Amino acid sequence: MLKKYKEIKNRYNIGCRFLNDAYNIESNIKSQEEINKNPFRSEIINFLLDSLDKSDTNYLEIGVRNPEDNFNKIISTKKVSVDPGIEFKTNPVDYKMTSDDFFNQIKNGKILRRDIKFDVIFIDGLHLADQVERDINNSLDYIQDYGFIVLHDCNPPTEFHSRESFSYYMSPAKYYWNGTTWKAFFKFRQNRELYSCCINSDWGVGVISKNIDLGKPTTILNPFYEYHVLDKNRNDSLNLIDYEVFKCKIRKD
């Protein structure tokens, strides 16, 4: 009995240390702050589609999971959804495949049209930098010159939120996960042929445009994509802006 009591007490002490740890407390606070931010991605996407002032719009969403989360809220004449169905088994999407397969099949003339162009492409698939980078590069081939590429989870509030493994729930970020999307977005923030910004809401909604001036490329040096460098230079690295400021930029152009 004494041995069992010591084991229980030891677990209790470990649990208390975890709950009272400064990193855990900070992560909880920042997670809650992010949850409370508005607007959500669907409102931003609908604003962009509406700003085009077109009677016929074409929207692509990569990484749908449950369509009720975002896809079904988007107002567009034509909507295309892509998801392999790993996280949402019913997977009621148009193309049940990875984004890599989707774009390859378009290029090979197996689905849609080789010359298809979308007005807005929303990337919210696998949140790992290499995959997000491929999704952005592929999207650039199929976005209208006046269109927008939108990315979710570009502004992880702590390093624990930006961990590579989603399944590691014992971190201070718990189930909240932005992955390493920010690294891919930051890489394109250095591209002088594109304009980009990150709306400070809903875990960071990144927007990339070929022609609309959303802000200058970043001059921050972070060759190894280290989180502490991002955190120190967050505003410049991501071109982090308020939603109302963003709307003014779009309406001005």
UniProtKB/TrEMBL annotation:
This is Class I SAM-dependent methyltransferase. One of its GO terms (biological process) is methylation. It comes from the Bacteria. The keyword Transferase applies. Pfam families: Methyltransf_24. Keywords: Methyltransferase, Transferase. Its EC number is 2.1.1.-. GO terms for molecular function: methyltransferase activity. InterPro entries: SAM-dependent_MTases_sf (IPR029063).
